[in-house]
Design goal:
This protein has about 425 residues and is α/β, with parallel strands linked by helices. It folds into three domains: about 210 residues, Aspartate Aminotransferase, domain 2, CATH 3.40.640.10; about 35 residues, no CATH class; about 130 residues, Aspartate Aminotransferase, domain 1 (Alpha-Beta Complex). The chain contains twelve helices and 16 strands. The strands form five sheets. Strands 1-8-7-5-4-2-3 form a seven-stranded mixed sheet, with helices on both faces. Helix 1 runs antiparallel to helix 8 and helix 8 packs across helix 12. It is globular.
């Protein structure tokens, strides 16, 4: 039943909706005659974002991947250091670690949330552990209370990959303000977008914020010290050569590495600011779709719904369900949905099993829960604000039909299957 140009109910190509307000903001910036890079719109977007998240600093960058790369740069990792990471995420979360001579320990996941399991985490911590990199999978907040307890007790930095988590909260606090460093993505598929690409880093440490600001602005990541009197005569400078004067009055004590250009454009920041104001509506739409799907699937045995931890709010960037009746039932369910025109994706393949991490010595059996869930139970269904009411109605009907086809029977409403 797949239509000629795609699925009747597609997986998200856009995770938000771009409307008239976005277009008006875009036109205002383009027609203003002001610079299109590093201007007032970026400052406004960053200020509003840090207010929303509750962090002291928020700095825009060009993508969530760049945010993660810069976050890892702040760790100043050296040979022999260890980092604990989740296997249940997109490759960009931990890919920057491939540039460092460090040991990565993959922490298995909780079978319900697919977030890092705090009990397993505790067993992986050693005196060499420098950082924990986690994800709030699908917008479901990780168990940050216990994770931060382990981290603080051992002097470990916690990096939150918040690419899915904008719009969620844990005990009233937004991801990005729960750990030490928060990394957000504004890719086209994410909960808000800045014209298809973009990212944000949130921090509470001012020294780290200064480093990120230099790194994203094409400056050298270095330790600068005043040259002091008598080091050399300052050359004659004209009044508008202030930058040259500042540079001349400092020397470098240590160079950590080169910076890069990760400047978000003004049009992107302007759209991001408008999208941020629409975030709550986008999130509520996702939550409504998730509730409809939960109601439809809860009638079937062998189906386990993802439950949000207590005192937390799920943003439903991904809608995840587990078919526990066996891999064969899941296979029939997914194939039936595809025939019915519903696009299904499985996110994400366990990272410790991909080639680059196998090259570093990781093997099957390392994270048994993540492996079993992905290979046997895990299903992601479309859940994004771009779906119309008619598409959501069709999705709910298709899910019910596909489950009945998978089981060869229908549910009676009390969790029992009735043969046709």
């Amino acid at each position: 039943m797949n239509i000629a140009h795609g699925y009747r109910v597609p997986f998200q190509r856009r995770g938000s909706v771009v409307g008239e307000a976005d277009l008006a903001a875009l036109a205002s910036v383009v027609n203003s005659g002001e610079p299109l890079s590093a201007g007032l719109w970026r400052e406004r977007f960053e200020h509003r974002f840090k207010e929303l998240i509750g962090a002291r600093h928020a700095l825009t960058v060009t993508s969530g991947t760049v945010a993660l790369e810069l976050a890892v740069r702040l760790l100043d990792l050296g040979p022999g250091d260890e980092v604990i990471a989740t296997p249940q995420t997109f490759q960009a979360t931990i890919q920057p670690l491939l540039n460092h001579d460090v040991t990565v320990r993959f922490c298995d996941v909780d079978m319900n949330t697919l977030n890092m399991d705090p009990d397993v985490l505790e067993s992986l911590i050693t005196e060499r552990t420098r950082a924990i990199i986690l994800v709030h999978y699908g917008g479901c907040p990780a168990e940050m209370g216990r994770i931060m307890e382990h981290a603080r007790r051992n002097g470990i930095v916690v990096i939150e990959d918040c690419a899915h988590a904008l719009g969620s909260h844990y005990h009233g606090v937004s991801p990005g303000a729960l750990g030490d460093i928060g990394c957000f993505s504004f890719h086209s598929t994410k909960n808000i977008t800045t014209l298809g690409e973009g990212g944000m880093i949130t921090l509470n440490r001012s020294d780290w914020a200064d480093r990120v600001d230099r790194l994203r602005g094409n400056e050298v990541d270095a330790v600068y010290v005043p040259t002091g009197p008598g080091v050399g005569a300052e050359p004659p400078l004209l009044p508008w050569m202030k930058f040259s004067a500042d540079v001349y009055r400092h020397a470098v004590a240590d160079i950590r590495g080169a910076g890069t250009n990760a400047t978000m454009s003004e049009p992107a920041a302007a759209v991001g600011l408008v999208q941020l104001e629409a975030l709550n509506g986008f999130t509520e739409r996702r939550r409504w779709i998730a509730q409809r799907l939960d109601q439809a699937m809860s009638a079937f045995p062998g189906v386990r719904l993802q439950r949000t931890p207590e005192q937390s709010r799920h943003a439903y960037h991904l809608y995840t369900v587990f078919i526990t009746a066996g891999a064969a039932i899941r296979e029939r369910f997914v194939r039936s949905l595809d025939r019915l025109g519903v696009e299904v994706q499985l996110r994400y393949f366990p990272l410790h099993l991909v080639p680059e991490w196998r090259l570093r010595g990781h093997r099957p059996g390392e994270c048994p829960v993540a492996e079993r869930i992905w290979f046997e139970e895990h299903v992601n269904l479309p859940c994004h604000p771009g779906l119309t009411d008619d598409q959501v109605d069709y999705l709910v009907t298709a899910v019910t039909d596909a489950l009945e086809q998978a089981y060869g029977a229908s549910a009676d409403g009390r969790g029992r299957l009735v043969a046709p």
